Amino acid sequence: MKRMLVLWLAGLSLLILAAGCEFDRDREKAAEAQAAEAEQRAKAQARIAGEALAAAREGVFKPDPAERALLEAGTAINPLGTPNGYFTNPEGVSGYFTNYERPFNFTWNGGTVEKRAFDGRTYRIMDGPGELALKYVDDPLILQRYKGDMTGGLWNGHGEHWTRNAGAGGHHYMFYQGDFRLDHMNGQGVLINYNFGGPGGVPVKYEGELRGDEFHGQGLFTNLATEEVIYKGLWFEGCAFTGSRGQWLAEDDGGELREVNRQFADPLMTDRLEFSGFINPDPGRGPLTIVLPRDVERAVITDQTGRVYPIEKVAHPTLRGPGDLEIFVPGARQEPPLADYPLTLNFSYDRGGLHHFLRLIVKHPFGLVVEAMAAEEEDEADEDLPGRMTKEELKASIDRRLRELEKLEREKERDAN
To answer: Rounded to whole angstroms, what are the CA distances from 346 to 119, 169, 299, 331, 358?
Structure first.
């Protein structure tokens, strides 16, 4: 009987423990549900606050009657008929514009200078401090505003730039105030992305160093709707950098010769092109190899010394034919003296029934691959971010940065556990 009593008591204890565990699980589930509900409420409130912040900027893009009359007086014309290049407004003022497939016009209230452009023509180009407004002819709202310094028709110096994403519904704007270098955000600046991430997104703000339109250096990234700090620290080419300042500097210095995109700078073009390439076995030395699109004709390449680069057939570094046969395309291969670098290369060629021009700076000898942008990529560039900032589609880059930050947070949580 005593044994049965002990067993009965033991069983009763287990039942009590089981009931307690069940109670704890219910309580945990309730707490989790409450936490999830609170998180959803916070997200909804942040979204509402963010949309209100974005909507409050709508006035920036509404032209006044006088401005509308000027913007709708005609269209900006590119004499070459190419998608990129120098466009001239009805008042005879010109600037370098890229990827505006719809007819547009712009106004400029500022200085100008007579200048021979990279396409060989002479224009009265925006130069010095001033204000620009740009609008598609068939759009009632302004697409871009800029107030600041210009050099040769390019944003260069300090300025404020507003962009509206005409391909997205609602209030999708972007604002940048800071340093520019030849049409790119470069230096110290503040970038605010008002709902550019799509419906349901919230504005985000970056304050810090940039290079080539990417977060690069010390910077602070916050949710503008809640003022919550998403990440504060070092950035490297658009991604959070978790190493020390010394490691960042070493990585940055090493990339000068190791990374293809650091071998050239400041391309200006009339065509729509993509640039890639390869590093020579001895980085910073050896030949300069140039691979051109397969369908170019009558190509001519020169540099600032007057050197002409004879066009010949060169093996494409990535394309292969049947049986892994090499594919030969137009190109050039030269070995200029290292003392001549950086080289300013000037290209002229025919493609697609149009005569095109390209100019870029080459800092070190390497293999430059120039390819025509595929038609579907051209369409995506227009839809994602119309205007000058097509090289680094900011929606995609910010999405990438957020994914990187999410990964960083998961790693921190794993290390803490």
So the answer is: 9, 40, 10, 14, 6
